Amino acid sequence: NEENPVSTDDIAVLDYSVTLDEDIFYNVDVSGNLDVCAIGSCADANIYVGPGNTFTASSTGSVTVSAHDLVNNGTIDLDTNTFELSGSWVNNSTINVDTSTVNFVASTTDETLTDISGSLNFHNLAFDAGVGTSTWTPLSDLTLTGDLAVTSGTLERTGRDIVVAGDISTG
Fold first, then answer.
1. On the CB side of 55, how many CA atoms lie within 13 Å of its CA?
2. Could you tell me the sign of the dihedral formed by the alpha carbons of 27, 65, 90, 86, in that order?
3. pTM beyond cutoff 0.85
4. Among 117, 108, 170, 109, which residue's Cα sits nearest to residue 142?
5. pLDDT, tens digit (0-9, with 9 covering 90-100), for 73-101
6. How many helices (H) and strands (E) does the chain have?
7. Sheet of strand 54-56: strand arrangement
8. Within 10 Å of residue 47's Cβ, how many Cβ atoms?
């Protein structure tokens, strides 16, 4: 809930490495990094935060959270953490970007970025399809307090404004 945010430390006590339960796909390593699909066939596994809940990956250091999509209906505090997503971004509530980094790493799919507020806000934002051909389409204007990098793939602005306070890099 909002008074007691969930962190990777909280969910690590029941991850796959502890339970060895084949129905638990996520794992938190010794550094606190969360892989939502650490074992098995779960490539579409998502980070989902429900209404009235808060997720803070780590407020005491920097960790990496890897998942397919991020779907938020509660509150997410990104802090100084890194989120690596191979899918889409759906924010239907509150995300505090702080000094975080969000890396979109899909390789062959078309993905969207949506925010109920009508404005997509990030600190550092990167798109990297590797050797793939992914296209990412923001459905609102983008505002970054940090840097924007499009290493490979396509950022399809579709007439949306992109405001970047830091550096922009491509290729």
1. 21
2. negative
3. yes
4. 117
5. 999 999 999 999 999 999 999 999 999 99
6. 2, 20
7. 54-56, 75-77, 94-96
8. 21
Q: Which residues 6+ apart lie within 8 Å of 21 measured at CB? A: none
In this predicted structure, the answer to whether residue 169 has a pLDDT above a threshold of 90 is yes
Q: What angle do CA 78, 97, 95 make, to 5 degrees?
A: 80
Give me the pLDDT at residue 111, please: 97
Do residues 86 and 68 make contact, with C-beta atoms less than 8 angstroms apart?
Answer: yes
Its sign, for the CA torsion 127, 53, 93, 122, is negative
Whole-angstrom Cα distance, residue 65 to residue 126? 15
Task: Name the helix (H) or strand (E) containing 150.
Answer: strand 148-150
Q: How far apart are the first and last CA of the chain?
A: 41
Average pLDDT rounded to a whole number, residues 137-154: 97
Express each pLDDT in 45-70 by its tens digit: 999 999 999 999 998 889 999 999 99
Distance set, CA 119 to CA 90, 95, 113, 125, 164 (Å): 12, 11, 10, 14, 13
- Alpha-carbon span 89 to 19, nearest angstrom: 30
pLDDT digits (tens, 9 = 90+) for 108-131: 999 999 999 999 999 999 999 998
